[in-house]
Amino acid sequence: MDYALNYEEPLLWEHRAADGCGVDFTPLENAPLRTEQVARNIIGWPKLKEPQIVKHFVRLSTKNFSIDHGFFPLGSCTMKHNPRLNEKMARLDGFANIHPMQPEETVQGALELMFDLQNWLGELTGLRGVCLTPSAGAHGELAGLMTIRRAHELNGQAHRKIILCPDSAHGTNPATAAMCGYELRVISTKETGCVTVENFKAALGDGKDVAGMMVTNPNTCGLFESEIAECAKLLHEVGGYFYCDGANFNALVGKARPADFGVDVMHINLHKTFSTPHGGGGPGSGPICVADSLKEYLPVPCVVKTDQGYKLETIEDRPSSFGRLKGFQGQFGMFVRALTYMMSHGGDGLRQVAEDAVLSANYILSKLKGDFYAPFGDKTCMHECLLTDKIQKEQGVTTLDIAKTLIENGIHPMTVYFPLVVQGAMLIEPTETESKEAIDHFICVMQHIAKDTSDGKANEIHQNPLSTPRRRLDEVRAARQPVLKATV
Amino acid sequence: MRYLPLTEQDRTEMLESVGVKTTDDLFKALPLAKGYDLPDHQGEMEVERFMTALAAKNETANDSPFFLGAGVYRHHIPSTVDYIIQRSEFLTSYTPYQPEMAQGTLQVIFEFQTFMTTLTGMDVANASMYDGATSCAEAALMAMRLTGREKIVIGNALHPQYREVLESYIGKDHISDVEDETIAAVIIQSPDFFGTPHAYAQLKNKCDAIGAKLIVVITEIVSLGLLPAPIEADIVCGEAQSIGIPMSYGGPHLGFFACKQEYLRQMPGRLCGETVDADGKRGFVLTLSTREQHIRREKATSNICTNQGLCALAFTVHAALLGEEGLKHLARLNHERACTLAEALSKINGVKITNDNFFNEFVIELPIDSKVVQKKLLNKKIIAGLPLDGNRMLVTATEMTTDQDITDLVSALTEVCS
Asked: Listing from the earlier edge strand, what are the strands of the sheet with B392-396?
């Protein structure tokens, strides 16, 4: 039942059907079909009119929390403000209504935009070979590893089958390595949260069978991998490549170039660092940037500038490429948004982005490391800080309970139980677009949770959230008796 | 800079709390860059001016009669769609890992899955894939996991870019020409790249006999409003851009992935399921995530994480507006426009329609090289169909193709061909 501003909304199929539909068309001629098949009978789609449909989706939208609602400190996800200018630019007729197979002379503006974006990413990473086509971070990882694999294959090194990867990595790293047919060898980071030269050497061995390593830097514990340049040097000496997961590039943008700590390949999440919206789970965009040594193996197409204007490369132009990884030219609409954002910030603004993001995370750490256990609290963190539930757990309050209590307080939880190597992890990424007022409010709520816990209010905390459209959901039931579609 | 709310005083207070003097003290571990060759920040007005000028350099589908398709289609998008997807609650939310704060997105995914299963005739559909080409490649990988076999047969005219992506994902040497007991699946596109729809019953029998899976690829999803659902398939996948999503020079679009119930646990990508909350009320969560990379790591069914969430929303809103009757009407209208175009083109001296049947696109045989024709039509402000090898051209009509567009094309082509 509805009450005040809280709405119950049935499924589209549960509404009483109208006549006709929510779109008016010109009448049909009902000429004979030229499909050689009988026209389809019942599909099973609803019958509703436009006002019912608008209400349906607006009412559903009220059950979502978003960046525009409030604080969203989801670690490693960079939930920063999404400027509406980006949206407006992507919808310009000249960008939204062009076809990917139009003759190149009719899309010079689009190609120029892609060329500019390639250059911005090259300048910011120091890795000058850029291919924009991968669709998201994990797809960028796949593109990066396939680039490395192609380089090894063409250089008589196809026997290299091992990818080194720390235990704190995102799940996509090992999954991507497996998809490329690589075997994983884990670098332990348990003691310090970082890849040390010692542990790296232990994993590397003689390195003859190592294709490369995948490391996120800053890493998923929120720390800068300070020994990574030395590790990269050792890796290069034995013929391996360094893939850097760019999920945490927001800490570096405009401040440091990944090429300067030995990176050979890196993907950039445009939907994180460069504010193209997350959209409830995508679309993302994951361009990859590579050092000159790997440029020729990149997927096609990249945009090149010629005397006759901008042009999309083909495999004939660059036969050493591993090929194509996506239909057409990539998530072009996201390129428009990202370049709009970059130009708005400029080089000076992007530097301030990294500085404010890092300062905000360190500020939160400084305020909360007394009330919560901070496994690396003695170190400077980068754009995110890591806490755990170690202290609260003794009173029966876990990371999950803390997350659900934040929800009750109108704040989106941080990333929880990740990285896996830290028990009860809470990874907090405030981003640079939050005011001090919002950050202080978050700190205050967290301190309250710590106090309520030590005051013995665990039972109350276990009830949270109470005021959301739905309370804690039974995930076990969902998985044991899967219901994955409506009854039609 | 307008997106950065911290004040100088805030920064000073925060540095003090951290216990350092300057921000650079926080970056001591990093090899700092000496500088960047990048312009400084700009106001909204300046950026808008730059972008508008770039956009104006492109010739759009609204500028001229337009006959391209080949996997990306120009359809009308009702205003409601863009209004809904620009709502902050959908646009700026995250993957619904915290279901209490994301019931809106979750119910949309559940409805999207329902739209996809009803449309394809499959039992289950996931929350989306990057695009049609990668979805097709993931289907091949899934068939390889299911059968323990390593070869794939491409059974007809698959979109050439889908083929290229498939080659990257599984390796060229895993694509076979022989339908025997070593193959994991046969891939059939319908309507195929040249526009011809296909039936599947015979092929399904053949696949069953050799223990291979049947993968049906759809690049023009509107066709399923007129053509029978590919219920014989094991996996139906492809591109759903045609409903609710602009062409945008090739992306972001909407890959979809649907299959039979028995393959559920080998599916790639996210799934949303129904459950109840602590008060017993119906709610939705992401489920069966033990297939996915964030739980299963190197043993996951795919490395996919982020998908095309907002595009799936756009599809769901447009699909809801169309409904049962609208989709059928739209599909029929597309077919009728294509029939009208075919009829008109076939009257031109030297132009031949090569398809016996089609949905909304077909191949014409021209008296001269199709690339030359494309260029000459462009000079006459017409964006032609896609030039294929030699004199052949793939031509597309949708509900957006007007009688005037067809008249313009016919008169220009008559002149070009004479």
From this structure: B352-353, B361-365, B392-396, B386-387
Q: Is residue A247 very low, low, confident or very high in pLDDT (cuts 50, 70, 90)?
A: very high
Spatial distance between the Cα atoms of A328 and A336, rounded to a whole number of angstroms = 16
Q: Does A5 contact chain B (CB < 8 Å)?
A: no
Nearest to A363 by CA among B10, B44, B223, B242: B10
Interface check for A119 against chain B (CB to CB < 8 A): the answer is no
| pLDDT (0 to 100) of residue A4 | 85
Report the DSSP pairing between strands B386-387 and B352-353.
unpaired
pLDDT tens, residue by residue, B333-359: 999 999 999 999 999 999 999 999 999
Q: Is A153 left (phi over 0), alpha (psi -120 to 50) or beta?
A: alpha
CA atoms within 13 Å, Cβ hemisphere of A367: 23
**Tell me: the pLDDT tens digits for B184-236?**
999 999 999 999 999 999 999 999 999 999 999 999 999 999 999 999 999 99
**Side chain identity at residue A429, one-letter code:** E
What's A120's DSSP letter? H
List, in order of start, the domains of chain B with CATH numbers.
Answer: 81-316 (3.40.640.10), 324-417 (3.90.1150.10)
Tell me the residue length of chain B.
418
Residue with tokens 């449309």: B119
ipTM of the complex: 0.98
**The whole model's pTM is what?**
0.98
Most A CBs within 10 A among B42, B66, B130, B161, hence the mutation to make, goes to: B130
Share of chain A above pLDDT 70, in %: 100
Strand partners, B153: B176, B186
> Domains in chain A, please, with CATH?
75-468 (3.40.640.10)
The two structure tokens encoding residue A66 = 């978003």
Task: Flag whether residue A94 sits within 8 Å of chain B, measured between CB atoms.
Answer: yes
How many residues comprise chain A?
Answer: 488
User: CA-to-CA distance for B216 and B236, rounded, in angstroms?
Assistant: 5
